[in-house]
Design a protein that fits this description.
A four-stranded antiparallel beta sheet has the order 2-3-1-4, covered by helices on one side. A hairpin with a 2-residue loop joins β2 (35-43) and β3 (46-53). The longest helix is centred in the N-terminal third of the chain and has 11 residues, at 20-30. The chain is built from three helices and four strands; from the N terminus they run βαββαβα. The two termini are 27 Å apart. By secondary structure, it is α+β, with helices and mostly antiparallel strands. The chain has one domain (9-93): VC0802-like (2-Layer Sandwich), CATH 3.30.2130.10.
């Protein structure tokens, strides 16, 4: 299973140091893994990176090789597709929007 067609969100904690993100990106690139989605959050000295890639299996291998603990998330977030309009209304009430 090379991960084709499967979207998995990973969350990994990065050290607060120059090059931490580059190290992850370079390791993925060396294995021909494309980052297809990315969200980063920095709080104080901790950094959390959420990403999807073109190959979840290789991504797991990269994180393990780098000694980075990671979590995997349900791509739907446990949200049934028929609830999307409800979520969109809630976000719109807060001044945000979501499109498919």
């Amino acid at each position: 299973m090379g991960g084709v067609g499967v979207t998995v969100w990973f969350t990994v904690q990065l050290e607060d140091r120059p090059g931490a993100l580059a190290q992850v990106a370079n390791a993925l690139a060396e294995r021909k893994v494309n980052i297809t989605g990315i969200v980063g959050v920095a709080e104080d000295t901790d950094g959390a990176l959420m990403l999807t890639t073109s190959d979840p299996a290789q991504t797991r291998s990269v994180f393990e090789a780098l000694g980075l603990p990671y979590e995997e998330h349900d791509p739907s977030g446990g949200l049934a597709p028929d609830r999307l309009p409800e979520v969109q209304r809630g976000l719109a009430d807060r001044g945000m929007s979501v499109t498919r």
